Fold this protein.
Amino acid sequence: MRSSRLVTYSPKVFIPLTRLCRDKCGYCTFAQAPKRLPAPYLSLKEVEQIAIRGAEVGCHEALFTLGEYPEDRYDEARRWLDENGYTSTIDYLVAACSHVIETSGLLPHANAGALSHEDLAALRAVSPSQGMMIESINPTLAAHRGAPDKEPARRLATLDAAGQLHIPFTTGILVGFGEDRQDRIDALEAIAASHDRFGHVQEVIVQNFVPKQDTAMRNAPPCSMEDLIDAIELARTILPAGVSVQAPPNLVDDATRLLDAGINDFGGVSPITADHVNPEK
């Protein structure tokens, strides 16, 4: 149960800087092939327009979502970066975050995946907080075959590196996508251990798996409400008291059950942009 009646959320805009990704996760509809996109990346002007619209309606944060290392898989991404003077996707993300601050005053939150110490440090100068879902530390999940950036050791190393750099960090687990209850406990304990070492985890998302059309897991059963509630209760028990527990309200029919289970944060809520990762509601 929550220790307080206070429930928080962040008014924000979602900025999908690129939907190209080198990973092929079995549940993802965010990542797209170049032929399905008008351009490999949003331009700085497009980023600015989204941010300014958000500022005009009272948003405080710009959540950058993007695929991981698309230039390693797609020539189109590598060519766009070269033509526009950027060495990598992260180099462009740094520029985009800086541009949002300068043009809109919104605070960027970079959700860029499994990054190196150097890339995290570069973003730290322009992104007051960062994030990356652990999802699971079970290395045998079918959902992560073909996804090198979901290798547990890589993601745990990113989590620790963020702590070493004193970056306020959001992470989380995915529930019901092939892992079991012990896997959830193991992932939550790993997150808690990293926070114990560095004190940097500000919130942990407990997200239920929802199958999506046009994915390898489209016929998989969705996470049950019982498993989601149990996972939230595990998170509230395992995580330190100062770490917020979040669950997306747009993925369930009755958000009050999430509150009863112990969450104290609804995460990012946007009045003008869709949740590009989970656009169900």
Remarks:
- The chain has a mean pLDDT of 95.
- DSSP finds eight helices and eight strands in the chain.
